[in-house]
Amino acid sequence: MSTEQDPELQKYFESLLDTFISEGWRFLLEDFTGAEESIRDIMQCKDDKDLYYRKGQLDVIGRLLAFETSIKNSYEDFLNDSSV
Question: What pTM, to 2 d.p., does this model score?
Answer without folding.
Answer: 0.81
